[in-house]
Amino acid sequence: MYKNYKVLTVIPVILALLSVVFVSVNGLNQSIDVSGGTEITVIVPNNFDYSSLEKQYPNVDFKISKSSSAEYLDIKAGTGVDINQLRTSLATALNTDDLSNLQYTEKQIGSTLSSKFWEQGALAVGFAFLFMAIVVYVIFRTPVPSFAVILAAASDIAIAIGGMSIFGIPISTSTIAALLMLIGYSVDTDIMLTTRVLKRKSDTLEGRINQSMKTGMTMSITTIVAMAVLYFVVSYIVPAAEMLKDISVVLLIGLIADLMLTWITNVGILRYYVTELKKSK
Amino acid sequence: MKLLKDKKVLFLLVCVLASILTIVFNGISFGVDLSGGSTIVLQTEETVDDEEMAVITEILTSRLNTNGLSDVKVYARGNDEIAIEIPESADLERIEKVIAQQGVFYAEISNTTAYTGKDVEYVEEPGLTAAGYGVSFKLSTDGAAKFANVSYGKGGYTVNLYLDDKLISNPVLSPDLADGKSHPDQVITVAGSNPTEEDETEAWAIYTALKSGSLPVKVNIAYINSISPTLGQEFIKSSMIAGIIAFLAVALVIGIRYKTPKIVLPILITGASEVLLILGFASVIGWKLDLAAIAGIIATLGTSVDHQIVITDETLAGESKKVKRSIQRAFFIIFGAAATTIAAMSPLFLMSIGMLKGFAITTIAGVLFGVFISRPAFATIIRELLRKY
After folding, report:
1. B340–A100: do the CB atoms touch at under 8 Å?
2. Protein export membrane protein SecD/SecF C-terminal domain: from which residue to which, for each copy (chain A) (predicted)?
3. Which residues of A touch B242 (CB under 8 A)?
4. How far does the CA of residue B216 sit from the closest CA of chain A (Å)?
5. Which domain holds residue B73?
6. Residue B259 backbone dihedrals phi, psi, to 5 degrees
7. Any idea what the CATH number is for the domain that residue B127 is in?
8. With contacts defined as CB-CB under 8 Å, which chain A residues touch B339?
9. Are B142 and B96 in a shared domain?
10. Of these four, B200, B206, B314, B325, which has the most CB atoms within 10 Å of its CB?
């Protein structure tokens, strides 16, 4: 086991690389933030029949989701659909003359905004990552441990995006927010680990790693549990608050990946750094 | 209690108390995605200077007021975006139409301009006129003179009325109006005596354009987010339920790990106090809490608990003499982690991409309050409690 740690170290990174490949093949679902268009969610009576709407608007997606107390109709339309007409048909189907009297929400993204999405999203994540990397280097001022922290964060993001691709979670402003949050959470445990291993003088290397692991696991598990609860409560009570749901899933995937990246990869690199690299100098 | 005399603990208590007082007396306002209403972002086709932007926001405000919405907020974002907040339910279809039109109006008789929107002195609300449903308006003396001039002797010609280069009406000029005298009273009809809802929307759009004048540039709708008040209430309620259950789940996890209320309670109370500090801060600066801000509060709470676990474990690990150094190391970790979080969030804040500014503000504020106010106090408290333990 001890001898094999170098092999183990690489496995999560390979997983992250596979995830990148998978995303580039499978692609990501696009929310209307990316494609432009309109998304409407409205509470409908139980067993609401929307087949006539479906027939009338073949290019529009209709989906029913159920919560403990109500049924929601989710409508996603591209930029080519006449929204005013769709609203009127929907109001007629629901026997109302004003949709805002119902439990109704609508989001519209124009093409000028959506066309800038990739550019702005990539800039935000890119700069966030760059700033984080600079701060990490300033904190430790040694290349190898800093590199380990940054590698772990990058792999977490890659695996989280891979998870989004597998589970069909669309890329949107909220999932970008989740990825930024993931950078923060991912680095927290790595900084703790690296500081303990490099700065604590007492105890053996193994002892320091084990102690860090106890702390780090508590940190990660509290966050994982909180996100799992958030996910289930939101899906169960208000499926319409999709933003919170998406954020919690992306963080869940990323944090579970982070357990591997921190306690296998980052620990492996640190062990190598302390036992071999530093000694040989 | 000795703890109450400690400066850091006292500082936290004062800040939390101040937050509670601010929240109670100043209140917390929710963004339209939680309280109900619409947010609309418009983009100008080219960048405009401050002066033009002021004209645009003024015209848009007047257009919304004209359509019966009094409590709207219209503000510029940078030099090519205008954000509009409408905190009540409203007819989106009509609003889209009245704000997105540029509103350039003119009348032509045989390709000669007879008058323009600038010559309109007074407009009446849409209603039934002698000629059908439409908008009546009055030309200024100059405008009426121009019209008299152009129309002279052109009885039987059509008067083509254009709004944003779209022909909206083309009545035939009756010979007795083409006598070269001033006829300031004009009508644009859009339907007969039984207007449909669409005709009404059209008439209101024309009325609004005539009344508020034209925008210096074309604008496009970039973003609309609208939510009915009942669903907004549902969001607030369920975010609170989700938050409380998540909090209890976290309590369970640290309860299993530390097994003593002496550690678990301070962690939870400190975490809760950070939420209060963020809410107090939002109340002071008048920041409106939206769904993104709630996500930010959840993120902060997660970081807060993580950091307190670091402090607790360092305190537990440090032997009696070395506790001070242990705590120093804990704060090294915490400051490092906080700095990376702020670094990761700052691009959102500076570039204000999409709607995530609220998220960035709450997260950064939360992290700063954490490292400077609540976590130093927590370190003192946990050290004191563990010493006696």
Report:
1. no
2. 100-274
3. 229-230, 233-234, 237, 244
4. 19
5. 37-101+217-225
6. 60, 5
7. 3.30.1360.200
8. 135, 139
9. no
10. B314
For residues B382 and B235, membership in a common domain is answered with: yes
CATH number for position B332? 1.20.1640.10
- The enclosing H or E element of A38 equals strand A37-44
Number of domains within chain B: 3
Q: Same domain for B112 and B139? A: yes
CA–CA distance, B80 with B60 (Å, rounded to integer): 14
Tell me if B292 and A177 make a contact (CB, 8 A cut-off).
Answer: yes
Query: Do B344 and A131 lie within an 8 Å CB cutoff?
Result: yes
| Lateral strand order in the sheet of A71-77 | A61-66, A71-77, A37-44, A104-109, B219-227, B37-44, B81-86, B73-77
For residue B389, the model assigns a pLDDT of 46
Number of domains in chain A: 2
| Mean pLDDT value across chain A | 88
Residues with Cβ < 8 Å from A13, sequence gap 6 or more?
A151, A155, A265
Q: Are residues B288 and B309 in the same domain?
A: yes
CB contact under 8 A, B354 and A195: no
pLDDT, residue B254, reads 94
Strands (E), chain B: 37-44, 73-77, 81-86, 105-109, 112-116, 120-123, 127-129, 132-139, 159-163, 166-169, 185-191, 219-227
Shared-domain flag, residues B259 and B192: no
ipTM of this complex prediction, to 2 decimal places? 0.88
Instruction: Locate A178 and state its tokens.
Output: 């989740």
- For chain B, say whether A33 makes contact (Cβ under 8 Å): yes
What pLDDT is stored for residue A97 in this prediction?
A: 76
Residue after which a domain boundary falls, among B162, B181, B212: B212
Task: Please give the average per-residue pLDDT across A68-81, as a whole number.
Answer: 84
- Domain span at A68: 37-109
Number of cross-chain residue pairs from A and B with Cβ atoms under 8 Å apart: 231
- A interface test, pick of B247, B353, B357, B361 with most A CB neighbours within 10 Å: B353
CA of residue B82 relative to chain centroid, distance: 10
pLDDT at position A260 is: 95
pTM (predicted TM-score): 0.83
What is the token pair recorded at B105?
A: 């109006």
Q: Which pLDDT score is estimated for B1?
A: 61
Residues B213 and B101: beta-carbon distance below 8 Å: no
Q: How far apart are CA B238 and CA B245, in angstroms?
A: 10
User: Does B348 sit within 8 Å of A177, measured CB to CB?
Assistant: yes
Residues B73 and B205 in one domain: no
Q: Does A192 touch chain B (CB under 8 A)?
A: yes
Our CA-based measurement puts residue A70 at a distance from the nearest CA of chain B, in whole angstroms, of 12
Same domain for B246 and B257, yes or no, is yes
Q: For chain A, positions 72-131, list CB contacts with chain B under 8 A.
A: 84, 87, 98-110, 112-113, 117, 120-121, 123-124, 127-129, 131
CATH of the domain at B58: 3.30.70.3400
Length of chain A: 281
Out of A43, A100, A120, closest to residue B351 by CB: A120
- Of B177, B204, B225, which residue is a domain's last? B225
Of A117, A180, A243, the CB nearest to B345: A180
